[in-house]
Amino acid sequence: MKHFNIYSNPQGNYIAIKQGWSWFGAILTFIWAFFNKMWAIGITVLFIIILLTVIGGFVGEKIDNIISIIWNATIAIVFGMNGNEWKSNSLISRGYEFQDTVSASNSEGAIAQFLKNKGK
């Protein structure tokens, strides 16, 4: 079972965010950030990627490859470790409120479990 934080907004929408590592954040980085409406993070990472690509054109292929490997590994780890927390903070900034933490196998199950517990 995984642990999910449940958030709701005044319109009655519920979102479950898994605690811990974010695989989608680690793999998709800035695309994942844009998809989750985290514009500043996505734009910053995209800008750095473009900047490193331009710099790589001046430093030579071997050094460019080393920089790319280090950058990609670092950003994947940072997004993986922090992605779900960033997503939670983004929801709060958009009017969602933390409700509870529940254990479930997936996000839909977590919301169902929360609503079941809420009804008791």
Features:
120 residues; three-stranded antiparallel beta sheet; single chain; alpha+beta; 66% helix
Short note summarizing the structure:
The protein is an alpha+beta fold and 120 residues long. It has helices at 23-35, 39-59, 61-93, 107-118, and strands at 2-8, 14-18, 97-104.
Describe what you observe in this structure:
The chain is an alpha+beta fold and 120 residues long. The protein has one domain. 66% of the residues lie in helices and 17% in strands. It has 4 helices and 3 strands. It has a 3-stranded antiparallel sheet with strand order 2-1-3. Strand 1 and strand 2 form a beta hairpin. The longest helix is centred in the middle third of the chain and has 33 residues. The protein starts with a strand and ends with a helix.
Oligomer: single chain
**N-to-C SSE series?**
EEHHHEH
Q: What's the shape?
A: elongated
Look at the structure and give the mean pLDDT.
92
Main sheet specs: 3 strands, antiparallel
Low-confidence stretches: none
**Rg over C-alpha atoms, rounded to the nearest angstrom:** 18 Å
Strand fraction equals 15-25%
SSE order and pairing:
Elements: E1 2-8, E2 14-18, H1 23-35, H2 39-59, H3 61-93, E3 97-104, H4 107-118
Antiparallel strand pairs: 1-2, 1-3
Helix pairs in contact: 1-2, 1-3, 2-3
